[in-house]
Write a structure and sequence with these properties.
Pfam families: Lactamase_B_3. There is one protein chain. This protein has 471 residues and is of the alpha/beta class. 32% of the residues lie in helices and 23% in strands. It has 15 helices and 24 strands. The longest helix has 17 residues, at 445-461.
């Protein structure tokens, strides 16, 4: 067998007869409104060589479920997705024109060929999944972004041991770095070191022979997010962490786009250094993509929002929330500050409790006493969030910036959680009691136990100690 790293989270696996599977093929262009780009870039020759028999998509985030990349493959290709409580992945694939969709339940095995099978393992309320690939006697655990731990990770390792390779993310893919605490500017908003530490702990807990830093090999090129490149935890930092802490098992291997391993010849890894001189290479990459970026800047500058669209969306959103959630948001309003053409064009005050929207003049002075929760982004992104029900995606791309007071930050964090629940069919609450949802969570009972234990830890010790669930 052979596997090859394709991209940020793209993985190709082939068996000896030549049957091939691709996971999460983001191969071309950008993701999250020109913010995320594959780093290093994927060669055209590699892209053009791909003729997979099947595709597996771990979850719906665009750096894994990438429409423009999927369109490079025939519409009749089987695409396999996890079967969770919601149908969004399947529905969006139908929208893109794909009809041969296979849903795998938690722990369900799918045979691709003789000696070549996959098993899907779901995790997290807002559906993610890991994929255990068994090919010609080699076992690969593609955890990507999923945070399996405790009983959920032991379910995988006990059933499939020994595992040869584990792949997992090792850098930030959330909104934490996008916060500015205006009344406590020195307050740290994220602990960057923990991402690599959790990578190492998870890799050790799997008992794998090799650990591959994965699903974090990207960069930011949009003018609004380019500065976030300095916070990306790249694979050489992972390698250095393993060396510093004397971690020899598993053995960490830095593999980037184009690198591969086979049972016959072992590792084939390029000697190109993408990280020591990363600032210069990023400047070159930015120049190469300048035309694409300039076209997108122009598109963003021309965005127009009708207040009625905003009013209808948040009216429906509020109505979907149970009273106790709406009541939680009663003390606050959320102020969206939306730019276009290089200046503030729209300001909307959102009252989630009442489902009401107030539009303010774009020249309004936004002091942090009157407006303690401000969300700054572009009119274009805000409108896409409404049109496609993807407010939960907005913060991932680091194109949204939160300026909040220390006392109000918790409300913004809560709203982002509620957006996820709304868009992943956990709200309205009656959607939790569909047969599909009940079946999914029953099969994932270990995860439910984990959440109970985490809540107990929070109540007793005042913090969440993930480390003890990775021993």
């Amino acid at each position: 067998m052979e596997f090859q790293i394709l991209s940020h989270a793209g993985l190709l696996v082939k068996n000896k007869p030549g049957k091939s599977l691709i996971c999460d093929p983001w191969l071309v262009g950008s993701s999250y409104w020109r913010s995320w780009w594959n780093y290093p870039p994927v060669s055209k020759d590699l892209i053009n060589s791909l003729q997979p028999d099947l595709i597996y998509l771990t979850h719906i985030h665009w750096d894994h479920f990438h429409g423009d990349s999927l369109k490079r493959f025939p519409c009749n290709i089987p695409i396999i997705v996890p079967k969770g409580n919601y149908t969004r992945m399947k529905d969006d694939l139908y929208y893109l024109g794909y009809k041969n969709i296979i849903e795998l339940k938690h722990g369900e095995r799918f045979q691709l060929d003789a000696g070549f099978s996959i098993t899907s393992y779901q995790f997290w309320m807002f559906l993610d999944s890991a994929l255990l690939i068994e090919c010609d006697g080699v076992k690969l655990l593609n955890l990507n972004d999923s945070k399996h731990m405790g009983l959920t990770l032991r379910q995988i390792t006990r059933k499939h041991r020994p595992i040869d390779f584990v792949f997992r993310s090792h850098s930030s893919a959330n909104e934490r770095l996008s916060y500015e605490i205006v009344d406590e500017p020195e307050t740290p908003v994220d602990d960057l070191d923990r991402y690599i530490k959790e990578f190492a702990q998870t890799a050790q807990a799997t008992g794998a022979r090799y650990a591959i830093p994965f699903a974090s090999n990207h960069c930011h090129l949009h003018k609004d997010s380019f500065h976030f490149n300095r916070y990306i935890q790249h694979p050489l930092l992972v390698e250095a962490y393993f060396k510093k802490h004397g971690i020899q098992t598993p053995q960490v291997k830095v593999m980037l786009s184009g690198d591969r391993w086979s049972t016959e010849t072992g590792f084939h890894i390029s000697d190109k250094d993408w990280f020591t001189n990363r600032e210069t290479l990023l400047a070159e990459y930015l120049q190469q993509q300048s035309e694409s970026l300039q076209k997108f800047y122009k598109l963003e500058d021309e965005a127009v929002i009708e207040k009625q669209v905003v009013t209808e969306y948040f009216g429906q959103f509020s109505a979907s929330l149970p009273f106790f959630i709406r009541r939680y948001f009663k003390p606050v309003q959320f102020t969206y500050v939306l730019s276009a053409g290089g200046a503030t064009k729209y300001i909307f005050n959102i009252n989630v409790y009442k489902g009401r929207v107030e539009e303010l003049p774009p020249h309004t002075v936004l002091d942090h006493v009157t407006y303690p929760i401000q969300i700054h982004t572009t009119a274009f992104i805000f409108l896409r969030g409404i049109e496609f029900r993807i407010f939960s995606h907005m913060c991932i791309g680091k194109r949204v910036f939160y300026k909040v007071t220390s006392k109000r930050k918790k409300y913004m964090e809560a709203l982002n959680l509620v957006f996820n629940a709304y868009e992943y069919d956990l709200l309205p609450i009656h959607k939790l009691f569909t047969w599909r949802s009940v079946e999914s969570w029953t099969m994932r009972w270990r995860e439910v136990v984990l959440y109970i234990l985490l809540v107990k830890d929070k109540l007793i010790y005042g913090k969440l100690d993930f480390e003890k669930y990775l021993r």
